[in-house]
Amino acid sequence: MSITLYNTATRRKEPFAPLDPENVRMYVCGPTVYDRAHLGNARPVLVFDVLYRLLRHEYGADAVTYVRNFTDVDDKINATALARKEAGADGTLEELVAQRSDETIGWYHADMDALGALRPNHEPRATQFIPQMVAMIEDLIGKGFAYARDGHVLFRVRAYDDYGKLSGRSVDDMIAGARVEVAPYKEDPMDFVLWKPSTDDLPGWDSPWGRGRPGWHIECSAMAYDLLGRFDPEGKGQFDIHGGGNDLQFPHHENEIAQSKCAGHGFANLWMHNEMLQVEGKKMSKSLGNFFTVRDLLDQGVPGEVIRFVMLSTHYRKPMDWTEKKRAEAEATLRKIAEVLGRDLLQKSWTVSGTFKPPKEFVEALSDDLNTSLALTLVRKYLKSEDELKLHSSLELLGFCPHAITNKFFAFEAHARVSDVGYGQGVRSFGDDAAVESKGLDSLAARLQTLRELAIESKDFSEVDALKAALQDSGLEVRMDKNGVQLLRGPNFDATKLEGLS
Ligand code: AMP
Ligand code: ZN
Fold it and tell me: Model-level pTM?
């Protein structure tokens, strides 16, 4: 099946033809690791995770190399390290900087893992590629595209004729619209930094221009070349796809292209950019009070699958709005999916991952410029027709683990009808633990029903209320009506909270 992708550089959808189908190569700009990832940062992670999965599906799991970097040269990382040092933390400033990056990268991994994102094949850190950056800068100076002045090295933007082509702007338009910094060491205000000096209290590396550190843009050019471009079978330094958020098009990606092309490396054949994420119709910002991290949501009990579902409901080239309504709808749909997938699970032999291929129409939807919103519409269709095989295989390709959905969202039901009190109902179970848990829920439902019946006579509902509150606190939904009591296991159900109750 052929894949078609929208290329920002040509502004149209193009059939995707990899340079080497046995090694499809993709680079995506990763986070600056100074703090927890916010919800917006998760959007490119999920968009390119689906693309990575689709490419692996099409070309083979071992035939795709995905690189996403960590920018660990940054003033905010340094500031945290410096503050810790001043507060008496052990270690040199370099060690404290590395510690802060390690800590943030650990959080990033945990948070993105929770969203079901596969780890890329390479996650290079900028600080591990300084010699490659220095070599590239020296090459650019030698070729006349860059110049050194006062410990800085600048890229000469006007020496590269195609500057601005990616975002479709002229250099003069960009000067008018951008906040370019005028500085005495610049020949032209548009010129951007390849290398800058470091003071003694900041991390730095020795270079032909003195002790300093790289500019942000050269990091990606050097890492993309070293991990992907070098493997171009034609030796031109090209690779297939470069991705990132829309906000990176200018100046970051324009600068990456200029540096790499002028160094004679070639670069990405196709550029993809995701649109931004907003919250309840507004730009996410600390001042509006609608800024939150992925971890904030996970800690509030929003499962990673719900975040993934909401994110993929909007096509990546459209702005996406995170709303409470969408969160609730996604959760309800996942519950229904769990209901269908969880039915008679023990009798199903096909639930082993990868057993069945997703339907053709589903793969076609994703192959049409990653139409995840159509793909989820198809998932809803398979849900409606209760087609378990199609549901299972499609969800897998979209990066959902059907088993995890069943485990998290299947509402184990414990019923205690008026006539049943005292008898454990046979409930569905997925394993020994779950079966024990279900029996426990059955007896709790029965107890609540008994207390209710007593309370109806005594008119004292305090014990009913106390038990109900404890059950709800464990993440159970408690339904009571004239027929009896029903306990439904919610996604945040924590059985340990029931200890001492049953
Ligand atoms: P940063 O750490 O800010 O460089 O961002 C890491 C990635 O997240 C980049 O690909 C950004 O384009 C992307 N990104 C940042 N904010 C948002 C947002 N609100 N919506 C979608 N993507 C974003
Ligand atoms: Zn980059």
Answer: 0.84
Fold entry, domain 4-148+157-174+215-274: Rossmann fold (3.40.50)
69 Cα–ligand 2 center, Å? 8
Residues 243, 270: Cα–Cα separation, whole Å: 9
The DSSP symbol for 296 reads: H
Q: Where are the domains of the chain?
A: 4-148+157-174+215-274, 282-409, 415-498
Say which ligand is closest to the CA of 218.
2
Ligand 1 atom with the smallest distance to the CA of 283 is 19
Q: What is the pLDDT of residues 357-414, one digit of tens each?
A: 999 999 999 999 999 999 999 999 999 999 999 999 999 999 999 888 988 887 655 5
How far apart are alpha carbons 68 and 161 in whole angstroms?
A: 28
Residues 312-328, buried b or exposed e (16+ Cβ, 10 A)?
bbbbbeeebebeeebbe
Ligand 1 pocket at CB < 6 A: 29, 31-32, 40-41, 43-44, 244-245, 247-248, 274, 276-277, 284
Cβ-Cβ contacts under 8 Å for 483 (sequence gap 6 or more): 417, 418
Please write the tens of the pLDDT for every residue from 304-339. 999 999 999 999 999 999 999 999 999 999 999 999
- pLDDT band for 430, please (50, 70, 90 cuts): very low
